[in-house]
Amino acid sequence: MHEPDSLHSAGVRSGALLHHLDTARHRTSWPTVTAVIPTLNEADNLRWLLPRLSGVEEVVVVDGESSDGTVDVTRRLRPDAVIISQPPAGKGAAMRAGFQAATSDVIIAIDADGSMDPREIDAFVALICCGFDVVKGSRYCVGGGSDDLTRLRRAGNLWLTRLANVLYGVRWTDLCYGYIALRRSVVDRLRLAADGFEIETELCVNAITTGMRIAEVPSHEFDRRSGVSKLNARRDGLRVLRAMVRGRRGPAQRGRPRPAAGPVLEHAAHERVGLEQAHLEEAAG
Length: 285
Prior knowledge:
Layout: H1 14-27, E1 33-39, H2 43-49, E2 58-63, H3 70-77, E3 82-85, H4 91-101, E4 106-109, H5 121-129, E5 134-138, E6 145-146, H6 151-168, E7 180-183, H7 187-190, H8 199-209, E8 214-218, E9 220-221, H9 233-246, E10 264-266, H10 277-284
Parallel strand pairs: 1-2, 1-4, 2-3, 5-8, 6-9
Antiparallel strand pairs: 3-10, 4-7, 5-7
C-alpha cells in the first residue's frame, strides 16, 4: 500500500492542517508560484479570477483562439501575464504548454471558470513546502465540497476514484478534479501526453508510478460563474478510464511526451506580490 495520500487518511484534522500551514510559512522559504490557466472563451470569468490572483508571481494563460476577447481581458487585468495562443486542442494540451512556459518553483493549475477559490492556493503550496511533489484538491476530504457536480458526474468520479485506488494502491478521495499544485522540477519526469480532461488523471497516476509524493487537500468547487462547461461526462469519463489503465505500464514506457501544438508566447516583465496571511487562515478554515 502506498503511503497515505490525503491529509484526512493520514489522521490530520482541520486544526492540525492550520499548524502545517503555519509551519511551512514560518520554517521554510516560501516558493514562487505560477498559476496556469487554460482558456477558451472565458473573458467574463477572467474578470472575476485574475484580480484575485494577487498571491502568485506569474500567471500563464493558455488560450485556444478565443473569440470573446479573453486575451484582451487578460492583457488589461494582468499586463504581466504570459499569454500562449494555440489551436484549441483540449485542456490537456493547454496545461502541458502552460507547464513548459512556467518559471516559478511551484505550478498551480486552476480553471478559468471561477469554480476554484484562489484563496486556497496557500494550502496547496504549504504542502509542497512540507515535502510533497504533487498536491491535488479533493472535494470529498473533510472541509471540501462541490456546488457543481451533477449526479452522473458524482457517480462516475466515485467509481473511477475507487478503481484508481485498487489499481495503484492509493487512498485518494477524488480523482477527476483539476485543482492541482506541483513542483516545476518534476514536470519532465511526469512525461505528460494527454490532450483532454484526462490530463488530471494522467498527472496523478504518472506521479505514483514514478515514486513521487502526493497529498490531497480539501477544496470547495463552486458553480461555473458564466458560460458552459466543455466537459462531456461520458466521453471524458472514458478517456479518464483509458488513461488510468494505460498508466499501469508506467510513463517511461510510452515514449516521449508530445509538445503542445504551435504555441505563440507573449510575455511582459512582472514584479513579485506578497502573500496575505489572511488568505492562509481562510484556506485552512
